[in-house]
């Protein structure tokens, strides 16, 4: 493994609590290098899962947070001007394909469609990445795998992956784990007691029931971890929940009242 790619190797095991058979299934998809789509709401463990899997498979992981300003060149690479003239610099997707990493495109739907199509030739039997500006065709390294994340809740007709893109991937569904498992995760990540973690999870469950009834997204596991971390440092639970759980997700005064009431029920 060369120096360029070594920096992407994950040395220490990222903690991941399996929820179902996703670890075994992912290993099977990696064995056949199937491009994968991790579907689920934000903050439910998709990124942590792929980090854990890259570590377990001992493969470097290159993560790209996608956004609407991203161009194909941001993924593939570009010519740069320096003192000695122009030189080509591989983008993250090209580095992953050339050197054999798992490339994780987080929230790929945020990227414009002309950007997403650059992944097409990498996701079929050809496994190639054309660097048009450079006039090079990269044949993907045998270890290369493409993984994307996708939040089904966010999509509108205007902003969705094209069927021709979706059908190139296998998919694993992610969701917030059940009460016991989520409590275990919050305890592990924050150091709060199981009792406090369980209360935080109960508040999140209330909020998740309000999704679609005034809330766009429920309280995520990530948010519970923020709240738990504050409580672990000695912040009063009411204040911690207000800051980490309630205020970020809604500006609606009635909804804030409803969520604050849920906090008072449990703390
Ligand atoms: P996503 O990529 O789905 O937006 P993340 O993977 O960043 O979400 O998850 C947010 C946080 O929740 C992680 O940093 C991790 O602490 C925690 N988490 C969620 N699910 C799990 C899990 N199954 N095992 C361990 N940690 C988890």
From TrEMBL:
Is Nucleotide-binding found in the keyword set?
yes
Question: Its domain of life?
Answer: Bacteria
Name this protein carries in UniProt: Nitric oxide reductase NorQ protein
Give me the segments passing through the membrane: none
Task: Note whether Transmembrane occurs among the keywords.
Answer: no
**Species of provenance:** Sulfuriferula nivalis
- Which SUPFAM superfamilies would you find in this protein's record? P-loop containing nucleoside triphosphate hydrolases
Q: Name one GO molecular function term.
A: ATP hydrolysis activity
Q: Which Pfam families match?
A: AAA_5, CbbQ_C
Q: What is the lineage of its organism?
A: Bacteria, Pseudomonadati, Pseudomonadota, Betaproteobacteria, Nitrosomonadales
What UniProt keywords are attached to this protein's entry? Answer: ATP-binding, Nucleotide-binding
What the record says about family reads: Belongs to the CbbQ/NirQ/NorQ/GpvN family.
Domain (ATPase dynein-related AAA): residue spans on this chain: 36-169
Provide the CbbQ/NirQ/NorQ C-terminal domain boundaries.
182-265
């Amino acid at each position: 493994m060369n120096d360029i790619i070594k920096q992407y190797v994950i040395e220490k095991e990222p903690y991941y609590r399996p929820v179902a058979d996703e670890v075994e299934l992912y290993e099977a998809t990696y064995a056949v290098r199937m491009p994968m789509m991790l579907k689920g709401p934000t903050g439910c463990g998709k990124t942590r899962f792929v980090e854990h899997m890259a570590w377990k498979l001992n493969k470097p992981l290159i993560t790209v947070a996608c956004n609407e300003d991203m161009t194909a060149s941001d993924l593939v690479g570009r010519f740069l001007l320096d003192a000695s003239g122009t030189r080509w610099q591989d983008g993250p997707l090209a580095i992953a394909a050339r050197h054999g990493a798992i490339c994780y495109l987080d929230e790929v739907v945020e990227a414009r469609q002309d950007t997403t199509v650059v992944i097409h030739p990498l996701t079929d039997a050809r496994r190639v990445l054309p660097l048009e500006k450079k006039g090079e065709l990269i044949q993907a390294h045998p270890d290369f795998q493409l993984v994307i994340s996708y939040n089904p809740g966010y999509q509108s007709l205007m902003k969705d992956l094209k069927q021709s893109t979706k059908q190139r991937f296998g998919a694993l569904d992610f969701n917030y784990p059940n009460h016991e498992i989520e409590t275990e995760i919050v305890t592990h990540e924050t150091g709060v007691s199981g009792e406090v973690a369980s209360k935080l999870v109960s508040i999140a469950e209330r909020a998740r029931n309000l999704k679609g009834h005034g809330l766009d997204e429920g309280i995520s596991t990530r948010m519970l971890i923020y709240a738990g971390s504050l409580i672990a440092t000695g912040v009063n639970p009411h204040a911690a929940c207000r800051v980490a759980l309630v205020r970020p997700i809604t500006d609606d005064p009635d909804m804030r009242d409803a969520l604050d009431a849920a906090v008072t029920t449990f703390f």
